Amino acid sequence: MNFWNDPLKVAAAWLEGIFTGWGMDAVLAHVLVVFLGVFLLITILMVLDIFLVWIERKVVARFQDRIGPNRVGPYGLIQPFADIIKLIIKEDTTPDGADKVVYNLAPILSMMSVLILWAVVPLAPVMLGIDLNVGVLFLIAAGAIGTLSIIMAGWSSNNKFAMIGGFRQVAVMVAFEVPMLAMLMIPTIFAGSMNMNAIIEAQNVWFFFISPLAALIFLIAAIAELGRAPFDLAEGESELVAGFNIEYSGMKFGMFYAGELLHAFTFGGFWAILFFGGYRFFGLEQVSPFLAILILVIKAMLGYWVIMWVKYTMMRIRIDQMLGFNWKFLTPLSFALVLVTALMNTLLRGADSWLFVTGMFLSNVVVGWIALEIARSVARKERERVEGVKAVEAHH
Amino acid sequence: MTAEQIIFLIVALFTLGSALMVVTTRNLIHAALWLVATLFGVAVIYALLNAGFMAVVQVVVYIGAIAILFIFAVMLTRKDLRDNTPQTNKNWWAGALIAVLTFAGLVFTLQGWSGFSKTASAVPLGFDAISQLGEQLTSPTAYVLPFEVASVLLLAALVGAVYVAFNKK
Amino acid sequence: MNEWLYVALFIVVGMIIPIGAIAAGFIFGPKKPNPIKQSTYECGIEPVGEAWIQFKAQYYIFALVFLVFDVEAVFLFPWAVKLGQLGLYAVMEGIVFVGILVVGLVYTWRKGMLEWV
């Protein structure tokens, strides 16, 4: 066992040796080492988060045909650090009518709900994170805490905009949690486990090729969960100014902002884990754990890039359209897809690998095509109705 | 005392304390948030018992859905959240009586139970509770009927709620 | 040791770091409160009335529908885990389970409860 093959275990064993050498209890030494490991991971995530600010600003600039930050440091790389210093030396105001305890707790819970998601992320074959057998549900549980933090922020600010923004955001988040739960069932069916690592291990063929529709619906639900465009009506600058975080300033606002960016990156990572093989890439992950982490980060960045691409391309849709889209289209479709997948999975069991993949892929295409045809005919009727009304009005 | 017992005691005290806050807080949103703390405490107890699935489900369903529903319900029914109506009504003594009787009944029933003084046997290695649950829920010889009846129950809840809300309008 | 202990460590560290960041802001930032600065922000207009008011009932209906489907999905997860080793009957049970709830969704839809009014 050398450091380059299994850095985590070697480092942990080395540290534990030092601690027990000082006469510390073995169990306590173990807990302390794990604590330090978690601390290290979260610190790295926070540093990454700072660079995500730069990445997001650069990418949006490119989408909008601008250059983006380019003054502070090479390619503007020091810009996010300048932003952080600015946030730290800003005055932290609390509105008079606010509910102080809840108001201060909300940004902490918001950031925490994103950070704990990384507990179940397998970074490399030898770095599995926490091997929970309820991995995919843990994703939703952490999301529940995030939802709660938004409702707390919206309510405690004692501001009408914050309240409306918070309530809208929560309505959207809970609505799109249903298709997301359903789509998490599909990798679970294929892998026969809810464990994140088991899901990666099962992806000899990426689940994206077995169930492209599921990957697409998961992405849509993830974007809604993040409250990003086209589902960002909670912040709706033109009407609500900033949504639930309107009264927050300084580092408390920074926590919401950083939390949102890291959340987007994390969902890019989960998209990669659930549908694109996570750290696996043609056996390269076996070469070195560092390479495996690099593969996962690149895949997560690509997922994050897709989320940004959608955000800066689409316009905001109204809340009635959004909830209608979810409850009348996405929810029935995702449950239909789960049932079809379950059926095909049982029928094609024992079949050749290529037959299984082709059958699954085709069944996805058929389900998606039927759903789109139904939606199209409904939309056509609706359009005819509206245009008919207009024609009658014009006639009068 | 083992470390696990100490953790259990702390969590249990936290859960009970928050439960007490739920019923004594004047502000209804605060009460709902204390309820979240209580439910989270219960989730931690499930986790301590190695019931990971129950712990996660507790958070997903109770904090993610029911607590949100409570907060929405509070926001929609109350005109002013800081009302100062008394927290008990004239039936408080009946409630207290029933609570005491239930507690006494539970103590009485559990007195003869031998499980109190025993430590639970460790979970066998490689035991997958979720897989077992899945098998039991779908097996025709086990719990498939309750599984389907749960769906009917959920349907009844949905239809009932919609009916009530619809007729209020 | 119980793996949930590690989750607890994640929760603890996940709270320490934001608390540290906010504390840094509290230490280094200026503190000069005044009544105008602390007033509720409503785009420069004097706030009128309370923010903690009675809210739209529509949110409640959507939360209710969500709750039912949330519980449904939770029931289906053990089924999904075991599905690979079970026969066609398990799939049929799943279809019946979801089918019953689809009736509820259709009822809600027909009653017009899914419209945002």
Describe the structure.
The complex is a heterotrimer of chains A (396), B (169) and C (117). Helix content of chain A is 71%, strand content 0%. Chain A is an all-alpha fold and 396 residues long. The termini of chain A are far apart. The model of chain A has no long low-confidence stretch (mean pLDDT 85). Chain B has helices spanning 3-24, 28-48, 52-77, 92-111, 129-138, 144-168. In chain B, helix 1 (3-24) packs antiparallel against helix 2 and helix 2 (28-48) packs antiparallel against helix 3 (52-77). With 117 residues, chain C is mainly α. In chain C, helix 2 (58-82) packs antiparallel against helix 3. The longest helix of chain C has 25 residues, at 4-28. The mean pLDDT of chain C is 81. Chains in contact: A-B, A-C, B-C. At the A-C interface, helix 2, helix 4, helix 5, helix 6 and helix 11 of A face helix 1, helix 2 and helix 3 of C.
Q: What key phrases describe this protein's structure?
A:
heterotrimer; A: 396 residues; mainly alpha; 2 domains; 71% helix; B: 169 residues; Four Helix Bundle (Hemerythrin (Met), subunit A)
Brief synopsis:
With 169 residues, chain B is mainly alpha-helical. Helix content of chain B is 73%, strand content 0%. Chain B has 2 domains: 1-81, NADH-ubiquinone/plastoquinone oxidoreductase chain 6, subunit NuoJ (Four Helix Bundle (Hemerythrin (Met), subunit A)), CATH 1.20.120; 130-169.
